[in-house]
């Protein structure tokens, strides 16, 4: 039987902080040491590397939620400094080092091998159709070392869900920048204050908000309408539904065990400021 959607969403909450250590200071510095100019060079080199030396237009399409032109500031420039294969290795080493640093003694705890194995079993079990970034990651070898294995599995699960989230956005006619506006509103802040889009030109961001207002999703004050809130909720529910196949390989008891074992690890990651 399918796992409860609440459990699938809980896995998202636990996997996210573990996977995203890849965007932390330790991993970023590994890229800067190899000639990357800034954080975003390392971000795009590492995250896009499983796609190979894909052009900016392809990376933009797969990543979905970056404003026009943002990817092209980094792709293909980074491939003149580092190959995708090198970027994969740098990202893996830096991310594992960051995770090990953040979780401290948990990195050598007896249960880490078990949680890494359970997570990896789920992470390599999902169908790849329609999941471009997940498929690229699936083509990579699964690391043997437990901490690295856990980060890799978390990344696979995160990007599998992310590919499904993009499909849910497309199905609801929500573009990438529009998705960030809805996320900002769901977090209780105005779009222009949200760190993922506050750098955009005011006129550009205002046009996006106006478009959502014209569709009845945003009100005159720039907040959610009932329809906007319901749309956001439907997208999140569909995203969880589309993420569920990754966990079908696990029994109910195994998924419960995975959640229980991940909780202290995710909490330890979140407790450490980068």
Walk me through the structure.
With 274 residues, the protein is an all-alpha fold. Helix content is 61%, strand content 0%. The longest helix has 26 residues. It is globular, with a radius of gyration of 19 Å. The mean pLDDT is 96.
* Helical content band: 55-70%
Characterize the overall form.
globular
Tell me the fraction of residues in β-strands, as a range. under 5%
Number of helices: 12
Q: Which residues sit in consecutive blocks of at least 5 with pLDDT less than 50? A: none
Q: What is the CA-based Rg, rounded?
A: 19 Å
The rounded distance between the terminal residues' Cα atoms is: 40 Å
Backbone structural class? mainly alpha
Mean pLDDT, to the nearest integer, reads 96
**Biggest sheet descriptor:** none
Oligomer: single chain
Task: Give the SSE order as H and E letters.
Answer: HHHHHHHHHHHH
* Beta strand count: 0
């Amino acid at each position: 039987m399918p796992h409860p959607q609440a459990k699938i969403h809980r896995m998202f909450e636990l996997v996210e902080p573990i996977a995203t250590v890849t965007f932390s200071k330790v991993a970023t510095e590994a890229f800067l040491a190899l000639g990357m100019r800034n954080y975003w060079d390392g971000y795009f080199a590492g995250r896009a590397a499983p796609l190979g030396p894909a052009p900016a237009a392809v990376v933009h399409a797969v990543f979905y939620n970056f404003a026009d032109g943002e990817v092209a500031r980094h792709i293909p420039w980074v491939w003149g400094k580092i190959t995708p294969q090198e970027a994969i290795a740098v990202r893996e080493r830096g991310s594992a080092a960051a995770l090990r640093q953040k979780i401290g003694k948990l990195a050598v705890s007896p249960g880490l091998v078990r949680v890494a194995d359970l997570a990896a079993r789920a992470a390599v079990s999902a169908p790849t159709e329609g999941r471009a970034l997940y498929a690229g990651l699936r083509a990579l070898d699964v690391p043997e070392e437990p901490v690295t294995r856990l980060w890799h599995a978390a990344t696979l699960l995160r990007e599998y869900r992310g590919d499904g989230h993009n499909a849910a956005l497309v199905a609801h006619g929500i573009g990438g920048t529009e998705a960030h506006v809805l996320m900002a509103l769901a977090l209780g802040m105005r779009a222009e204050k949200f760190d993922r889009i506050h750098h955009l030109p005011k006129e550009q961001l205002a046009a996006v908000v106006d478009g959502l207002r014209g569709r009845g999703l945003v009100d005159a004050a720039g907040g959610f309408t009932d329809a906007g809130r319901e749309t956001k909720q439907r997208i999140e529910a569909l995203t969880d539904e589309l993420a569920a196949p990754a966990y079908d390989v696990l029994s109910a008891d195994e998924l419960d065990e995975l959640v229980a074992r991940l909780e202290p690890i995710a909490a330890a990651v979140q407790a450490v400021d980068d």
